[in-house]
Amino acid sequence: MLTPAVQASRLPRKLDLALPLRGELGDEFFGLGPVGIPMSFGRNTEIYAEGEPAGHVYKVVSGVIRISKLLPDGRRQISAFHTEGDMFGFEADDAHHASAEAVVPVKVIAYKWQSLLAAGTRSASLVRNLLNLTMIGLRQTQEHLLLLGRKNALERVAAFLLEMAERTDGGSVLELAMPRHDIADYLGLTLETVSRMFAELKELGAIKLDGARRVHLLDTERLAAMGA
């Protein structure tokens, strides 16, 4: 039976207890024993909502997570995509300030935040790695703010494609998990503008489109120059 704290964090969605707790930041890394809760979420399923208690942090085992916030006028801003190996759900206080949803079917491991803090008093390596995760997240946030504030539409799309290629390690063939309207909400553009920029990059010979989600990166140097 799940504890009230777990229930409050909306954890009892679908537990996949057969999921191995391994990986770069798995339980062996934390040295805590089997404290992580393996979970599976279907496409577009909410993991947690804005305003809910922030009692857990999560590691992505597979799939892609989007972090988003609804603006007062009803528009949506996606602030981050998290891919395999990323951790998310860190908050400065006791509530989530954005929502987390599965872009595609995902598997995550949920860790109780208080357990990690307690373990940090016994493990200097855990503290270093949690701090490193925080710095990585801060750097990604800074880069995203730069993208939104200083780059035009074509530069934003070029930078996004290179970012996703680097994070998914797909080489020159990029399989985009997210639909175009998610990309638009991440880049602060309209759906029509994103589609037009994809077409322009194709005309320039920088990319080749193979269906709605598969992108062949034909000229990464040109993309890098655009997105710099």
Question: Whole-number radius of gyration?
Answer: 19 Å
CATH architecture of the largest domain: Sandwich
Number of helices: 8
What would the CATH topology of the largest domain be?
Answer: Jelly Rolls
Instruction: Give the CATH superfamily of the largest domain.
Output: Jelly Rolls
Which parts are unreliable, with pLDDT below 50 for 5 consecutive residues or more? 1-34
Largest sheet: 4 strands, antiparallel
| Strand content bin | 15-25%
Number of domains: 2
Tell me the number of strands. 11
CATH top level assignment of the largest domain: Mainly Beta
Largest sheet: spatial strand order: 1-8-3-6
- The proportion of residues forming helix, as a percent range, comes to 25-40%
- What is the N-to-C succession of helices and strands? HHEEEEEEEEHHHEHHEEH
Overall mean pLDDT = 80
Principal-axis shape equals globular
Class derived from helix and strand content: alpha+beta
Distance between the termini: 51 Å
Explain this structure.
By secondary structure, this protein is an alpha+beta fold. The chain has two domains: about 5-145, Jelly Rolls (Sandwich), CATH 2.60.120.10; about 150-225, Winged helix-like DNA-binding domain superfamily/Winged helix DNA-binding domain (Arc Repressor Mutant, subunit A). The chain is about 40% helix and about 25% strand. The chain contains eight helices and eleven strands. The protein has helices at about 5-10, 25-30, 115-120, 125-150, 155-170, 180-185, 190-205, 220-225, and strands at about 35-40, 45-50, 55-60, 65-70, 75-80, 85-90, 100, 105-110, 175, 205-210, 215. The strands form three sheets. Strands 1-8-3-6 form a four-stranded antiparallel beta sheet. A four-stranded antiparallel beta sheet has the order 2-7-4-5. Strands 9-11-10 form a three-stranded antiparallel beta sheet. Strand 10 (about 205-210) and strand 11 form a beta hairpin. It starts with a helix and ends with a helix. Residues about 1-35 have low confidence and may be disordered.
